[in-house]
UniProtKB/TrEMBL annotation:
Alphabetical list of InterPro entries matching this protein: ORC6_cyclin-like_2nd (IPR054113), ORC6_cyclin_first (IPR008721), ORC6_met/pln (IPR020529)
Subcellular compartments: Nucleus
Taxon lineage: Eukaryota, Metazoa, Ecdysozoa, Arthropoda, Hexapoda
Molecular function per GO: DNA binding
Annotated GO CC locations: nuclear origin of replication recognition complex
Gene3D superfamilies, per the entry: Cyclin-like (1.10.472.10)
Natural source organism: Pseudolycoriella hygida
The UniProt record lists the keyword Transcription: no
Domain ORC6 first cyclin-like per the UniProt entry, residue ranges: 16-92
Keyword annotations: DNA replication, DNA-binding, Nucleus
Entry annotated with the keyword Nucleus: yes
The protein's name in its UniProt record: Origin recognition complex subunit 6
BP term (GO), one: DNA replication initiation
Length: 240
C-alpha cells in the first residue's frame, strides 16, 4: 500500500471508520486536492481528517469529532471553517435528509425528532420567511436542532454546525431567524412522553396551525398600523 493511502487508513482507524467505500472516497478527494497548487505546501493531516469526515457524511456515518479535533489540534470553529472551505474547493454539495442526519447523529427518540423536524420544515415552507431552499442542508440541520430543543433530546450543536457546512456566525444568524419563526408560531417546548395518546396530542398541537397563526399575525399587523396612524394624527395636531 502506498504511503499516502496507508496514512488515510491509519487515520480512519483512529476516527472509528471501517467502511472501505468511505476511505476510498476520502482518498479520491485528497488526490484531487493534491492537484491544486494552493494545497501542495499545506499540512496534510487536517485534510485527511476532514476528507474522511466529508466522505463519512456522504455515507450517512458519523465520526468521532472530539478525536478528530484532538488529532489535528483544531478548535471547533476552525475545523468547521476548514471543512466548508474544502467542500467549496472540491465543489461538493452534500445532500441529506432529516432521517439520514438524525441516524448519523445517533439521537435518542430519533423518530420523534424526525417527525417534529419535518413539521418545522413544513411550517417554514408555509411561512413568508426567505431562508433559501427548504431542503437545503442548513435548514435540515437547524430543524433537527430546534426539534431536539423542543423535545429535550441531547444533541451536540457543533456536530450539526459541521453537517450544515455553515460557519459559526452564519449558524448563529440562522438560529436567530429560526427562533423568531418559532416564537411567532408559539411552538410549545413540550417534553417527550411515552403514552401514544399523549404523543399524538403533542404532534397535532405542538405547532400552531398555519391558518390560525396567519390570522393572528395579520390582526396584530392591522392593529399596529392603526395605532401608528392614530399616533401620527396626535403628533400632527400638536404641531399645528
Amino acid at each position: 500500500m502506498a504511503t499516502f493511502e496507508k496514512s488515510v487508513t491509519e487515520v480512519s482507524k483512529i476516527l472509528g471508520i471501517s467502511n472501505k467505500k468511505v476511505i476510498n472516497e476520502a482518498i479520491d478527494y485528497l488526490t484531487r486536492l493534491r492537484t491544486k497548487a494552493t494545497f501542495k505546501t499545506k499540512n496534510e493531516l487536517p485534510r485527511i481528517v476532514i476528507c474522511l469526515n466529508i466522505s463519512a457524511n456522504n455515507a450517512n456515518e458519523a465520526i468521532n469529532i472530539d478525536k478528530a479535533l484532538k488529532l489535528i489540534k483544531y478548535g471547533k470553529v476552525k475545523y468547521c471553517n476548514e471543512k466548508n472551505f474544502l467542500l467549496r474547493i472540491l465543489d461538493i454539495e452534500q445532500t441529506q435528509s432529516v432521517e439520514s442526519v438524525c441516524n448519523a447523529l445517533k439521537l435518542t427518540k430519533v423518530k420523534d425528532v424526525e417527525k417534529t423536524a419535518t413539521k418545522l420544515l413544513e411550517r417554514l415552507k408555509q411561512s413568508e420567511m426567505n431562508l433559501g431552499e427548504i431542503s437545503h442542508l442548513q435548514n435540515i440541520c437547524m430543524a433537527i436542532y430546534q426539534s431536539c430543543k423542543l423535545l429535550k433530546v441531547k444533541v451536540v450543536e457543533t456536530q450539526l454546525i459541521s453537517w450544515s457546512t455553515l460557519r459559526r456566525n452564519q449558524w448563529t444568524k440562522l438560529k436567530s431567524l429560526w427562533c423568531l419563526l418559532l416564537t411567532e408560531r408559539k411552538v410549545e417546548s413540550t417534553p417527550i412522553v411515552t403514552s401514544p395518546i399523549e404523543r399524538s396530542v403533542i404532534e397535532n398541537h405542538a405547532i400552531e396551525d398555519y391558518t390560525v397563526w396567519k390570522k393572528r399575525i395579520l390582526d396584530k399587523a392591522r392593529a399596529k398600523l392603526a395605532l401608528s396612524k392614530e399616533h401620527r394624527k396626535t403628533r400632527s395636531g400638536k404641531f399645528y
